[in-house]
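User: I need a structural model of Multisubunit potassium/proton antiporter PhaG subunit from Roseateles asaccharophilus for a docking pre-check later this week. Nothing fancy, just the predicted structure tokens so I can convert them on my end. Input:
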Amino acid sequence: MQELHWVIQALVSALLVIGGVFALVGAVGMLRFPDFFMRLHAPTKASTLGVGGVLLASLVLHWAQGDHGLHELLITLFVFVTAPVSANLLAKAALHLRVPSRAPVPPDQPQP
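Assistant: Understood. Predicted structure tokens for Multisubunit potassium/proton antiporter PhaG subunit:
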């Protein structure tokens, strides 16, 4: 295995830390938020950004080693496409089933 330049090592480390922080924030949001709709928001954003940071770190590492990194690009594409779509479908199903929410109703909306 070849020795990588310190800038590449620092960039890969920073991307891994950023991805880990976003994943941790998403996990904490899952535990702290009180209802389904609020819990849906935390992991969809955090998982996309957390997994994206880890995949970018892997992509940079492979490019620095001379590989093409096609696998990482495809995984990133699929994660960035499927996470928002699945969150939208879950939210629509919850609205259809009338899942209760603890979010306050805005003052300009009629009270249910």
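Before docking, keep this in mind: The longest helix spans residues 36-64.
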